[in-house]
Amino acid sequence: LFCLSVLQTSCVIPPPSSCSSSLSFPGTVPHGKQGRSHSLSSQSSSHKLPVSRMNGDFTKMAAHIDHNVEASFNIVNEKEKDKKLIQTKMATKVSQWISSRSKLEALFSHPLYNLPRKHLLEDDWLLKLKPKNKGGDSEEEDEEEDSDKSSEDSEWQSDSEEDGYDRANWTRSADTHPAWLRYHLGISRWELYDRNDPSVAEVTQQMATQRILSAVQKSGGTQLKLIMSFPNYGQALLKPMRQERDAETDFNLFYFSDFERHNAEIAAFHLDRVLGFCRIPPVVGRLINITREIRAITTDHKLSRTFFTSPVGNLCFHGQCEYYCSTENPVCGRPQVLEVSLASMLPDLSLAPRRSWRSPWRRSYSRTKLAPWEKNPDYCDTVKQTPPYNQGTRLVDLIDMVILDFLMSNMDRHHYETFEKFGNDTFLLHLDNGRAFGRHSVDEPSILVPLRQCCRIRRSTLMRLRLLSLPGFRLSDVMRESLSQDPLESVAPLLSVQHLSVLDRRLKTILKAVHTCLEHHDDVIHDDLQGYDVNLYRH
Ligand SMILES: Nc1ncnc2c1ncn2[C@@H]1O[C@H](COP(=O)(O)OP(=O)(O)OP(=O)(O)O)[C@@H](O)[C@H]1O
Ligand SMILES: [Mn+2]
Fold first, then answer.
1. Hey, which of 416, 429, 431, 433 would you mutate to test ligand 1's pocket, going by the most ligand atoms within 8 Å of its Cβ?
2. Phi and psi of 528, rounded to 5°?
3. Where is this protein found (predicted)?
């Protein structure tokens, strides 16, 4: 294997892709980000057991149990009753062991979640470190340069330990970078992050625990959001808890007049990852102290002016924004403690501009008007001929997003974004999921309309959905397990049992819709597994 990037000083054999759209064409040399950023390892900290290991363990354990049962039988041969009792005990043990086996680990070890990675060229990375002024890029020179921090790396340095920020001595070497920077440097044309990149777990862990140094309101969008800053210069987008997490959206409310939910932002990140997309920035839950971690440190005067104590003595604020920023719609602590979601910030727009695309299936956002797709059953025929949906993977990317949205009942996907650098050949960012998981008692069939009208789906997506419908990988089970990693789970489950179980129901509906498509059309499958031995990916 060889390594192309001028940045790297050593090469590691690249691991397979952890996310869906980063498929390589068979026969190409895989070239992963681990080959580019030498401090990154392909081992995930949270998923240590590959399934083959677990299967091995299972066989060993089964053999051990068999042996024990046999031995026990010899001793208690004459006592039929005891024999039955032991048999029952052993059977219970085995079933307990099977049920305690991690379905999530098994899922992420499945070949469909470890497809070979697409061959990445320099232009397929969102960001790159500035090239050196001096010629040459040998390892020795890199080290030499790293030690000579006062010259070329000066712009990465900060001596300012005032205000609580860390002293930053970032060089070209990845191990001097904070986790958020390593995560940013890992963003590629086909995925926002690599599921196995340890920096992603580190970013999440740091957002949940690091000291908060600053909190200011984020402009743009309609609801209250804060940008929080951490000592290592990382930042996160905060959305507060505004209603009980299990409160169902009022049936008389339109989709555009509903509060955002912090738990929906968290659960959406997990769902997107479980579906194998990796298109939502890492999100984590946290309990914050409104006085200490917002009011006392904010330099945002517009925000400071909105704090007040409620009649029952809870500390509240409402900020200033287009909707719901009023004394009638406060964000309140108990009495000062508030549940929030923290989403890792994407690279600044000045470094990585993004393009916002209006969804062709956008709702009318009116109480009376219908959107064009609601009036014309053949609407997709037009979309299919309209750039950028007429070539590349844009249409099936949109269908992936529709599947995510139908599962979590998000009707608010009016726009999606892409990184401008990558033009039309890139993944779609699934930002803003705060209005998802609002109702569990009903499903929203209109969210699935693009799939029904277009009848197109990626083969890899369909196969992963089928996998998630099997008892061994059941979507609700892997989601419960994935969410259990979030710190807020210790307060209360992030998704109630009802919200979890509707995931399985909705998954069935999606598979039925695809089945109906397959019965009536012959170009339903976008074959992104062409050239692969599909049997390898069957279950
Ligand atoms: N993790 C992130 N990093 C950087 N920017 C982000 C992130 N998440 C969202 N944004 C940007 O902030 C804008 C507002 O965020 P978001 O859409 O979540 O808020 P909102 O109040 O729900 O907006 P709207 O009312 O328009 O739906 C988004 O359009 C997006 O460009
Ligand atoms: Mn929104």
1. 431
2. -80, 0
3. Golgi apparatus
Dihedral sign (CA 262, 401, 443, 267): negative
CB 238 within 8 A of CB 226: yes
User: pLDDT at position 366, please?
Assistant: 84
**Are 158 and 168 within 8 A, CB to CB?**
yes
Residue at 411: amino acid letter: M
Backbone φ and ψ of 168, nearest 5°: -105, 125
The secondary structure element, H or E, covering residue 215 is strand 214-217
Question: Residues 6 or more apart from 140 whose CB is under 8 A from it?
Answer: none
CB of 431 closer than 6 angstroms to any ligand 1 atom? yes
> Which is the closest atom of ligand 1 to the Cα of 223?
21
The rounded distance, in Å, linking the Cα atoms of 322 and 302 is: 14
The letter for the amino acid at 499 is H
Single-letter amino acid, residue 336: Q
Alpha helices in 275-300 (DSSP H): 290
Token pair of 89 as six digits: 């005990």
Low-confidence ranges of the chain (pLDDT < 50): 1-14, 22, 24-35, 37-76, 135-154
Q: Is 319 in the pocket of ligand 1 (CB under 6 A)?
A: no
223 marked as part of a ligand binding site: yes
Rounded distance, CA 197 to CA 199, Å?
5
Ligand 1 midpoint to CA 389 (Å): 24
Active site residue 412: yes
What pLDDT, in 10s, does the model give residues 283-334?
999 999 999 999 999 999 999 999 999 999 999 999 998 878 899 999 999 9
Q: What is the pTM of this model?
A: 0.82
Atom of ligand 1 nearest to the CA of 323: 25
The DSSP secondary-structure symbol of 295 reads I
Strand order in the sheet with 315-317: 308-309, 315-317, 331-332
Which tokens hold the place of 88? 């029952």
Whole-number Å distance between alpha carbons of 174 and 180:
11
Element (H, E) at 148: none
Task: Scan for tokens 């789906």, then name that residue.
Answer: 457
Tokens of 112: 């469909």
- Using CA atoms, how far apart are residues 199 and 162, in angstroms rounded to an integer? 26
Does the CB atom of residue 142 touch ligand 1 within 6 A?
A: no
Give whole-number Cα distances, 474 to 386, 404, 452, 459, 492, in Å.
Answer: 37, 16, 24, 19, 22
Q: Which residues pair with 229 in a beta bridge?
A: 214, 235
345 CB within 6 A, ligand 1: yes
**What pLDDT score was predicted for residue 505?**
98
Of all atoms in ligand 1, which is nearest to the CA of residue 239?
Answer: 18
Q: Relative to the alpha carbon of 349, which ligand is closest? A: 1
Q: Which residue out of 237, 349, 410, 420 has the highest number of ligand 1 atoms within 8 Å of its CB and is therefore the one to mutate?
A: 237
